[in-house]
Predict the structure.
Amino acid sequence: MKRTLPRRLGPDERGTSALEFALVVPVLFLLIFSLLEADFALFNFQQIQAVASDTARCIAIGSNLCSSGAAGYAINMSAPGHAVGGLTASMIQSNTNATCGGQSNMTKVTIAYPLAAALPLNFIPSFMNGYTLTGIGCFPTIQ
């Protein structure tokens, strides 16, 4: 007659999946939220670049839309059309006699937007405070 050990003395694998899930979930969430933050940063960089380019063009051709100056036009363009909120005049610099890409007599608009303001989740706030997204727009000065 063959004797077998009772089930309770053998290997018990109940709960293994729950333990593995608990170990993997923090890494998975870190990856997902980091990708979301990177996506928001890239989207906002593209939007800031578009606002800088539009503002440089407006100033360069001497449009009446830019009568309030580069900062006023960029602020008016940023919020409704480009979803960049919180843009202030101190973040915007313009130069109508600049050199861009080796070309002289260009209108250059530079927007320095803080990265922490561009990220709604602000997943790692202390890391994001020191960085800015810089959008540069150039257009030949016509006026």
In short: Residues 21-140 form one domain. The mean pLDDT is 84. The chain is about 50% helix and 20% strand. The first helix runs from residue 16 to 61.
